[in-house]
Amino acid sequence: MPAFAESAAEPPLADSYHALLRRDQGSNRVVDACATVVPSTGCQAQPQPVSECELPMIDVGYLTAAGATPQERASCAAAIAAAASEWGFFQVVNHGVRQELLDAMRREQVRLFRLPFEAKTTAGLLNDSYRWGTPTATSSRQLSWSEAFHVPLAGISDDRCSYGELTTIRDVTQEVAIAMSKLANTLARVLAESLGHSRAGSQFPEGCDERTCFLRLNRYPPCPFSPDAFGLVPHTDSDFLTVLCQDQVGGLQLMKGSRWVAVKPIPNALIVNIGDLFQAWSNDRYKSVEHKVVTNATTERFSVAYFLCPSYDSPIGACEEPSPYRTFTFGEYRRRVQEDVKKTGKKIGLPNFLM
After folding, report:
1. Distance between the two ends of the chain, CA-based, in angstroms?
2. What beta strand segments (E) does 193-280 contain?
3. Domain of life, per the record (predicted)?
4. What pTM was computed for the model?
5. What does the buried/exposed string (b/e) look like for 205-233 if buried means 16 or more CB atoms within 10 Å of the residue's CB?
6. At what angle do helices 169-194 and 70-86 cross, to 10 degrees?
């Protein structure tokens, strides 16, 4: 393996990768780009080529524009529901999150992640929300080559939330959170109404507010082991809805049918995807789709994600009965995910809660 010198700002991802790789080799595992081994021979299977796709693009301005006709609003809502059912992912424009604000967020992210690694891990920044790699990884294929600040919304404006010397990031982060929250709640209500949920006009999903939702600032450093390492391991999101702003580097891939497809970055568009809770609530009509981030050998990648989550004691019901899932709370779901990852190295998710 080539040597890789970590800078003062970089998390020790290479050290973790080497340690896990030695563990793989000690267990006689063969690790390759698609983590597939032919059992009888130990030979690596060839990864299938990844094609690039453009997700359904939806102008959601029709949902809130004063001059939009009922037919335009209905057509927009139908397009959102269709994309959630067929793809589990879609892109939105005219979404109400100003591009100037997102550009400011990107500049602040760069400054934040350029801080020394020791400061990021020990200074208690952004509610002590810094994380890197995958602490539970037991093989190199379970390591995410990334770092992030996973910030509860309530903590962003809290006077006790430390931003160190980066005082300008507070207002920008708070404004991004407010704008993405408004978009996420609008889309969630539209999706609920599309399934005939009569209470969607008041509050849906119930139990979701600034005390329960999160904003995640992501950075994917250049990876000398690309493409053998993941930027973010394959997973589904354990929330109702995710709103993502990615840069133009690319790297997001999702499972479509039985193949991975790369999502082409589109300027000024945000990506929205369905989470596990919405799939359960919709009786599988909306799809929480597996996705991942692939690494880049030379270029870092930044993104911002908003997660629409309920309180831990919120029951996740169904839009109608019968449901394929038993009733469970968000807290129960999160605990089961954590237990599975600790035991097996991967998330099992919704199949645990089938009737």
Report:
1. 48
2. 214-220, 230-235, 241-246, 252-256, 259-263, 270-274
3. Eukaryota
4. 0.90
5. bebbeeebbbbbbbbbbebbbbebbbbbb
6. 90
Report the C-alpha gap between 348 and 106 in whole angstroms.
33
Q: 166-193: per-residue pLDDT in tens?
A: 889 999 999 999 999 999 999 999 999 9
The residue count for the chain: 355
| Token output for 283 | 């009786």
Q: Which residues are within 8 A (CB) of 90 and not within 5 positions of it... i.e. 6 or more apart? A: 55, 56, 57, 58, 80, 83, 84, 271, 272, 273
Which bin fits 117, alpha (ψ -120 to 50), beta or left (φ > 0)? alpha
Using a 10 angstrom Cβ sphere, with 0-12 exposed, 13-18 middle and 19 or more buried, the burial of residue 52 is exposed
Helical (H) or strand (E) element with 332: helix 330-344
Q: What is d(CA 335, CA 329) in angstroms, rounded to the nearest whole number?
A: 10
> 168 - beta bridge partners?
none
Does 106 score more than 90 pLDDT?
yes
Q: Which two tokens stand for residue 187?
A: 């889309």
Contacts (Cβ under 8 Å, ≥6 apart) of 344: none
Map 90-154 to HEC letters.
Answer: EEEECCCCCHHHHHHHHHHHHHHHCCCHHHHHHCCHHHHCEEECCCCCCCHHHCECCEEEEEEHH
Can you read off the two tokens belonging to residue 84? 């959630």
Copy the structure tokens of residue 97: 């999150």
List Cβ neighbours of 207 (8 Å cut-off, separation of 6 or more). Answer: 310, 311, 313, 314, 330
C-alpha span between 104 and 60 (Å, rounded)? 23
Q: In whole angstroms, give the CA distance from residue 132 to residue 127.
A: 15
Burial-class residue 90 by CB neighbours within 10 Å (0-12, 13-18, 19+): buried
* Closest to 104 measured CA to CA, from 156, 175, 54, 33: 175
Rg value, the chain, Cα: 20
d(Cα 278, Cα 287) in Å, to the nearest integer?
Answer: 8
21-74 pLDDT, tens per residue?
A: 999 888 754 444 444 333 333 333 444 667 888 899 999 999 988 889 999 999
Residue ranges and CATH numbers for the domains of the chain are 50-343 (2.60.120.330)
